[in-house]
Design goal:
The chain is mainly α. It is about 70% helix and about 5% strand. A hairpin with a 2-residue loop joins strand 1 and strand 2.
Length: about 140
């Protein structure tokens, strides 16, 4: 029952491993820090391109933590429910980047927003096209 890192790494393409590691980092490092150690006055959470501050941000952090935890588990086990939800979540980040840039931009929000959205559309499309990788397969104990 030894852990085989190479076999684990081969379960997914390199870009999906990066997403998995990002979800692991957010689940076990950043979100606990953000929720338990960051002062309320410094707290910010972004939802759909709108920034929440203070207690509103602190109150929504558990939902972000749950999302990243589900992503970490889903990528680890390559769960079938990850498709289409991972792609849809990253797509909403792309839209949020556009909205955020339009809201805080100094008249140049469209250009920077479209660039930011385009950057996030690449992993959105990759996740959408990865449906077969998330098909249910029997897990060995």
């Amino acid at each position: 029952m030894a852990f085989d890192a190479k076999a684990e790494w081969r379960k997914r393409p390199w870009w999906m491993n990066l997403m998995w590691f990002f979800c692991l980092y957010m689940t076990f490092v950043y979100m606990p820090f953000d929720l338990f150690l960051k002062p309320v006055a410094q707290d910010e959470e972004v939802w759909f391109g709108f920034v929440l501050h203070g207690w509103a941000a602190k109150a929504t952090e558990p939902l972000h933590w749950l999302i990243y935890g589900a992503g970490a588990y889903g990528f680890w086990k390559m769960k079938a429910w990850m498709w289409p939800w991972a792609a849809l979540y990253v797509a909403q980040i792309a839209v949020a980047m556009l909205v955020w840039n339009l809201r805080v931009g100094d008249g140049q929000g469209w250009f920077s927003g479209l660039i930011a959205a385009a950057v996030f559309m690449a992993p959105t499309i990759a996740l959408w096209r990865a449906r077969s990788r998330f098909q249910s397969t029997p897990q060995t104990p």
